Amino acid sequence: MKIYAKLALGVALACAAALQAQTLEKWEIGPFVRPASGNPIIAPRPESTFNDPIKKAPVHWEILHTFNPAAIVRNGKIYVIYRSEDDSGKMIIGDHCSRLGMAESTDGVHFTRRAEPVFYPAKDSQESREWPHGTEDPRIAESEDGTYVLTYTQWNGTTYSVGIATSKDLTHWTKYGPAFWDAAGGKYNELKYKSAGIVTRLDPVKDRLITAKIDGKYWMYWGEGAIRLATSTDLIHWTPVEDAQGAPIVLLGARPDHFDSDFPEMGPPAVLTDAGIVFIHNGRNKDQGGDPALGPGAYAAGEALFDGKNPAHLLERAADPVLKPELPYEKTGQYVAGDTFTEGLVYFHKQWFLYYGCADKLVAVAIAQQK
Description:
Elements (H helix, E strand, L loop, with lengths): L1 H19 L29 E3 L4 E3 L5 E10 L2 E9 L12 E8 L6 E2 L13 H4 L4 E8 L5 E8 L4 E8 L5 E6 L17 E3 L1 E4 L4 E4 L1 E2 L2 E6 L5 E5 L6 E2 L24 E2 L4 E2 L4 E8 L14 E8 L7 E4 L22 E9 L2 E8 L3 E8 L2
Parallel strand pairs: 12-19
Antiparallel strand pairs: 1-2, 3-4, 4-5, 5-6, 7-8, 8-9, 9-10, 11-15, 12-13, 14-15, 15-16, 16-17, 18-20, 19-20, 20-21, 21-22, 23-24, 24-25
């Protein structure tokens, strides 16, 4: 960790000034600035071991990579739930087993980590959907009654889906299986889908993000390659919003000559504001015909605005990313093209903290002041 921090320190200061100079739309959250020190906030720990309930043997559960974090505010602290990979399988992306670790912080930058994962494949009802490759890429939201709702990818090596789980303490979880299970009479039970975030709002009393109801329902943006929409009445069972032909509607697709020219994907849970629903999404730059300011295949993050009364109606889409790979630790890892992959956004001490994965290897944070 100290090596990465020293490597980034000088570059981070210059990068912060550049980000502050960004011109954003009035509705956008940002600009996001990397702290001058502290990043990356989470890195692999080869010494961490965990007695796996399926293997019934100790595993080095975060030895290779720690990345793609969710984030939530609880009891005056920020909790980051991050994806970690062991050294099982082949040395290729997606072939290791992922579990979710957790770390907590009083300032959003310096974290204390749990010794063992808090969420993982186990001898439970979801074993066949999560073993041997695990639980990946979490997003998290708090409901009105204080229940935490986790959306994550279930990956067994053959098929994948968005799984739903809930907890009251971020440590003990109840798994419910795929988000769309039995929706529309089982129509989506064989669908492969991932990357989902529930729409939230800033509660003026709690002073943190909680789930938002619009027109009497909860809403969730989901998908990779194209962003779609789903609704729920209980935050557990979800139904895709369909077009006239009965297919899930597409709200946001790839754009030529932009950072998301190849593969837009859901970022952290969106935020309902006075201007509308502010939606941070990730995007991959096309090898040819993408953003010339980014390298081929690089992942960056940008923002879009949806109607606050009609979450399916796209109002605006910012042309430029608010976060892109610039520092060494954002370009060195499993994903060598460079990657700032956002999955966690919290409001804390009158600031916005955006947590992201770096090149499928590390976790970092960027911070924005409240406008």
